[in-house]
Design a protein that fits this description.
heterodimer, A: alpha/beta, six-stranded mixed sheet, four-stranded antiparallel sheet, 10 helices, globular, B: alpha/beta, MetI-like fold, D-Maltodextrin-Binding Protein, domain 2, three-stranded antiparallel sheet, binds adenosine-5'-triphosphate, binds magnesium ion
């Protein structure tokens, strides 16, 4: 809770998405303070991606509205809105015909930055996401899944946005790298005072990163609160079960450790 | 062979001009249309369907169809333009289809990413969709390239010179070396252009600058060469040659060369040949001024141009009718009659004639149900056929249409029993065939006449005089002998024609 101030940076009000009869996101309300990191947590198909995409209008809401820094996003040209918001895709979506460097440089190019500044920024970002600068001239297809994800994060950060939307950005990383990048992302967002909505279905990641967590289920936001709130005062059974998973898992690990001496021939 | 290869530069250049321009136009049309079709939903189906329909029209027919279409629009209907329009239309489908499928096939996740990073719809197209669709679009251009190079050989009958000149005249005069040269040159050109397009693609995708520059440079050079040679005649102040036309059969090749040689000899004016024209195209070409003079036959003009197929007329009456029609109706001149008739004649093997006592067409009537008749591809659709059939009550077991150059052999090898031969064809004697007499006069007269366009009467009366001096110079016997030299002895029509001109010039 480092650099949060009182200004509301993202405000979603009554956000709803329907496909035919199916209600995919139902009356979603959320205010994110400037500099705050909110994690959206929930099972597969709970509507996290849809919600995130409605914030930068990749998906037009059926009802409701989003205000960004006080301005109704429906009033901005979509491409300008999106250049101001860093977005990291669940499916990564690197452009296969461009090099790693060019992928990272996409938004600064669109914004017309001078080449020198773009080159310096690309180096800086590769560094930040812990990618070897020699990868700069490779094609995305020549990278591992985890390396591609890091390029995706670098691309989202490239134009120094004040708002970041990240959709499971670390899904393909091994636990060790993942933890390191979570930590480095925390530093970045503090330094840049990023306002962040971060989607994951990994409890530990949510607990590590979040200022507040919103739990989604069946398109509805079941509960919104600090990690401590959710752990100590879950609003319902579903949240309770979800929040107790790390402890259940820890218990399993614990038990294994205890058991070991008995199973080992002496 | 050397005579053949001497023609290569001009045929290849003409072929290159047609192909390059048509490809430029069809790519320039199809890529934007394909892009539009992926943006404007209702456009996709109709444009692909239309291109598909164009594709199903046989290519020769498509090119031939351009002649009346352009004529109706009051545009140049013979020569370069109809060929270009036809070829361009033919090249549209592969490029259009591949542009549409290429863009539609771009991974939706990448399209969304392009939107998501803040590209405008134009930037999405230029920076993501087109580059990703490019291999597919280029594949379409390569298909179009190979097709258009091949189909451009069919431009010859609509009056545009191409490598097809080798093939058409080679097929008619049984000059297999000419056919081979034409095919090999076209295949070589197709491979070259395909290779260059491929090199551009590789250069772009793998970012090989050197290769890209080399390929683009070569293509630019080819375009510059084609454009330059195409434009050159416009700036040349050399006298426009007298253009002598020829339809696509041996006699016409010989006569056109003979007329050209004779005109040059008599008037000192330059001439050029435009050969292998479609039968109807030749008349239109003179009418529109693309061709100055050619040989036609009274019965052909009577039936095809004057629409009098059902009207019987005697020789003299028909000749005068045709003369009036040409002069009053079209400002053309009937310069002279050459002195022979080239008509259809029902012809049988001499041995059969002996055995069954055949002398006239009427003698066939009883035998016909047991016999097969062969004819060139148009005969059975021409008015002469029902006229003869009904006049003599003929009812053959089988009617087989085939290429005219094959039918004499078909008769000799007993594939068919009767053929509708041409009376001046030397192969009648060569294959020991016998012409049956048309004693009821069912087949109209086909006197060979020299038809001159309006330009000659206006600007070159000396040429008309020279043509008039050809009057009666060739009787049927002589024509048959000349045809035989080409068809059976493999001589070049130009050689035979040159001998004729020399003989005629020496004799006068
Ligand atoms: N275009 C669409 N048409 C119909 N249904 C859709 C469409 N897009 C998404 N859905 C449905 O909406 C629901 C929510 O999808 P969403 O992608 O937001 O889930 P998610 O929470 O991101 O899931 P995950 O964790 O698996 O990524 C799903 O049930 C999905 O099937
Ligand atoms: Mg999702």
């Amino acid at each position: 809770m480092t650099t949060v101030d009182d200004t509301v940076m993202i405000q979603a009000a009554g956000l709803t998405k329907r496909y035919g009869d199916a209600v995919v996101v139902d009356d979603f309300n959320l205010s994110v303070q400037a500099g705050e990191l909110v994690v959206l947590l929930g099972g597969s198909g709970s509507g996290k991606t849809t919600t995130l995409k409605m914030i930068n209008r990749l998906i037009e809401p059926t009802a409701g509205c989003v205000r960004l820094d006080g301005v109704d996003t429906a009033e901005l040209p979509p491409h300008e809105l999106r250049r101001r918001i860093g977005y990291v895709f669940q499916r990564i979506g690197l452009f296969p015909h461009m090099t790693v460097g060019e992928n990272v440089a996409v938004v600064p190019e669109l914004l017309g930055w001078p080449p020198g500044r773009i080159a310096a920024r690309v180096d800086e970002l590769l560094n930040l996401v812990e990618l070897d600068p020699t990868l700069r001239d490779r094609r995305p297809s020549e990278l591992s899944g985890g390396q591609q994800q890091r390029v995706g994060v670098a691309r989202g950060l490239a134009a120094e946005p004040r708002v970041m939307l990240l959709d499971e950005p670390f899904g393909a990383l091994d636990p060790v790298t993942r933890e390191r990048l979570q930590q480095s992302f925390l530093r970045i967002r503090t330094r840049l005072a990023l306002t962040t909505v971060f989607v994951t279905h990994d409890m530990t990641e949510a607990l590590t990163l979040a200022d507040r967590i919103g739990v989604m289920h069946g398109g509805r936001l079941l509960q919104l609160g600090t990690p401590r709130d959710l752990l100590t005062r879950p609003a319902d059974d579903y949240v309770d079960r979800l929040m107790s998973t790390p402890r259940r898992q820890a218990a399993v690990v614990e038990a294994l450790v205890e058991e070991t001496p008995r199973g080992t021939p002496s | 062979m050397t005579e053949l290869l001497a023609l290569l530069p001009s045929y290849l250049t003409a072929h290159l001009q047609l192909t390059l321009l048509a490809l430029l136009l069809s790519t320039g049309l199809s890529v934007p249309l394909g892009i539009a079709a992926t943006r404007i939903a209702w456009l996709e189906q109709p444009s692909l369907a239309l291109a598909g329909i164009i594709q199903t029209v046989p290519s020769l027919a498509l090119l031939a169809a351009m002649v009346p279409v352009l004529a109706a629009l009051d545009l140049q209907s013979i020569g370069f333009l109809p060929a270009i329009v036809g070829l361009t239309l033919y090249g549209v489908l592969p490029v259009l289809r591949n542009t549409v499928t290429g863009i539609a096939g771009v991974d939706p996740a990448l399209k969304e990413a392009a939107r998501g990073v803040g590209m405008t719809s134009r930037q999405q197209l230029l920076r993501v969709e087109l580059p990703l669709a490019m291999p597919v679009i280029v594949a379409g251009i390569r298909t179009a390239t190979v097709w258009v190079v091949g189909i451009a050989t069919l431009s010859t009958p609509v009056g545009a010179t191409s490598l097809g000149n080798y093939i058409f005249s080679g097929l008619q005069t049984r000059n297999y070396a000419a056919i081979l040269v034409g095919c090999v040159a076209a295949a070589g050109l197709a491979l070259l252009l395909d290779g260059l397009v491929r090199a551009i693609e590789v250069g772009l995708v793998r970012r090989r600058r050197g290769r890209l520059v080399a390929a683009l440079g070569s293509i630019a050079l080819l375009y510059a060469y084609a454009g330059g040679t195409l434009a050159a005649p416009m700036f040349s102040d050399r006298e426009r040659p007298i253009v002598v036309g020829a339809k696509s059969f041996t006699e016409q090749y010989i006569l056109s060369a003979a007329i050209a040689g004779w005109v040059e000899h008599q008037t000192g004016r330059p001439t050029s040949l435009l050969q292998s024209l479609g039968s109807l195209v030749a008349f239109d070409a003179v009418d529109s001024g693309e061709v100055d003079v050619y040989v036609d036959y009274t019965g052909t003009i009577w039936a095809n141009e004057m629409g009098r197929a059902q009207v019987r007329a005697g020789r003299a009456e028909m000749l005068e009718g045709v003369r009036d029609f040409l002069e009053a109706g079209h400002g053309m001149t009937l310069a002279t009659t050459l002195g022979f008739e080239n008509t259809y004649a029902l012809t049988v093997r001499a041995a059969d004639a002996d055995r069954f006592g055949l002398r006239t067409i009427g003698d066939l009537a009883n035998l016909a149900p047991r016999l097969a008749i062969g004819a060139d591809v148009e005969f059975f659709a021409r008015p002469e056929w029902p006229a003869v059939r009904d006049a003599y009550g003929l009812n053959f077991r089988e009617e087989r249409a085939m290429d005219a150059s094959l039918m004499y052999q078909a008769a000799a090898t007993e594939e068919v029993d009767v053929i509708s031969a041409y009376t001046t064809d030397g192969r009648i004697t060569a294959y020991d065939l016998l012409v049956l007499e048309d004693d009821r006069g069912a087949i109209p007269p086909y006197d060979a006449i020299v038809v001159a366009g309006a330009r000659l009467a206006r600007d070159a009366p000396d040429v008309l005089d020279a043509l008039a001096r050809l009057g009666g110079a060739i009787d049927a016997e002589r024509m048959r002998a000349m045809n035989l030299r080409v068809d059976e002895r493999g001589e070049d029509p130009a050689t035979v024609a040159a001998a004729f001109v020399e003989d005629l010039a020496g004799g006068r």
